[in-house]
Amino acid sequence: MTEKTALCEAASLAPGEMARFELDGEDPMLLINDEGEFRLIDDDCTHAIASLSEGRLEGQTIFCPLHGGSFNIRTGKACSLPCKQALRTYDVRVEDGTVYFLG
After folding, report:
1. How confident is the model at residue 49 (pLDDT cuts 50, 70, 90)?
2. What is the distance of C-alpha 61 from the center of its chain?
3. Which phi and psi (to 5°) does residue 41 adopt?
4. What is the pTM of this model?
5. pLDDT, mean of residues 7-16
6. Where are the beta strands (DSSP E) in 1-103?
7. For residues 40-53, b (16+ Cβ closer than 10 Å) or e, as one string?
């Protein structure tokens, strides 16, 4: 059975907003409201240690604040150099207005 962990109330993140989470036993994660759908990805850039929560989000692309590399928030795929390695993506579910990490 999949364990679920509450992250936040869905209403607390408007479309285009994001929030960083540090859960016990997990690497930092970034929750993004993608036009009403919630995406959960690694928060650390795969190129260099930098928090993507400090970067900028343009549509479905998040840009690293350190070197400007980018990733697709839906797939985790690296979109521009210097980033080459994809981010991990995680399953989330919204139940009764709460966003849960399924892990």
Report:
1. confident
2. 11
3. -130, 170
4. 0.94
5. 97
6. 4-9, 18-21, 29-34, 37-42, 56-58, 61-63, 70-72, 78-80, 89-95, 98-102
7. bbbbbbbbeebebb
Residues, the chain, total?
A: 103
What single letter denotes the amino acid at residue 57? L
Residue type, 79: C
- Mean pLDDT, residues 15-21: 97
**Strands ordered across the beta sheet of 61-63:** 56-58, 61-63, 70-72, 78-80
- CB neighbours of residue 56 within 10 Å: 12
CA torsion through residues 2, 49, 67, 28, sign: positive
Residue type, 63: F
